[in-house]
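Input record (Table S2, row 331):
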Amino acid sequence: MSEPLLAVRDLVKQYPVQGEFAFTRTRRVVHAVDGVSFDLRAGETLGVVGESGCGKSTLGRAVLMLEPPTSGTVLFNGRDVTRMGASELRALRSDMQIIFQDPYGSLNPRMRISEILSEPFEIHGPPSSATVRERIAELLSAVGLTPLHAERFPHELSGGQRQRVGIARALALNPRLIVCDEPVSALDVSVQAQVLNLLKDLQRQHDLAYLFIAHGLAAVRHVSDRVAVMYLGRIVELADATSLFARPAHPYTQALLAANPKPDPRKRSESAPVEGEMPSPVDPPSGCRFHTRCRFAASLGGRCSAETPLLKEVAPGQFAACHLHDRGHAS
Ligand code: SF4
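Output record (iron/sulfur cluster complex):
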């Protein structure tokens, strides 16, 4: 099998808790991402899903070095991004791009679309095979817009059109990897599918790899080849999308799926939706971080709060971090 385009190993991202040190003289940290590892191949989509605060967006930003990780490695095409200097990283930006959740917030309201789309060429140099103007026309066409949109301002476009501009900007330098950070969450349901289909078409045309971050399972299911489920900074399940949605192996994945309506209402979920609040990432629970909300924890006699479960292969290509699988009776 070919080498992965992206190989993330033991990635950790912590933030100091703001303002506490002056009063308590102790330095507490937010454990936003805690020991995450995965591979991503060229042309593949890895969906990353979990509740708000699980660390999925921080993971995407750490992979791109927009927020440098506390520890761990990020190999892009075999080169460790975390050890690169500023000029190497700037050069790498053309290969690794991001699409943000809020297309309005991420586009400068005072710039015309043509100016927004020409910015990458001002930083990284002109396109090799066309003028900037021709390349902008190409990009607009690739995302389903016309040259007329080039002279508009962001507020003159609909939400879906603005996100198409965000996608065009990410494509400008012919990247190989795009982190899609909740790219359809802010859009009307009626345009979400159009934007997801556009992302899939562009992936096929350009052999793009996507790290597709979302809290909505429907969007993840629509685009992902494999899915990583995150809980409190850790991956608790990683599997191909078909297996994960058909036979979720981790109780948290089962609960997430139970909270979402099934495409076929005759297929009722056996699991209950996850209850209660996610604990604080400043002081996460010991052992399995999900044990304070897991309906199976009591049946394992204290093991769940004492021992951290490792991510293990529980079926071909399906990995879960849960002690139930050691006993061979996972639900
Ligand atoms: Fe639940 Fe225990 Fe499995 Fe964690 S290790 S998911 S608490 S059964």
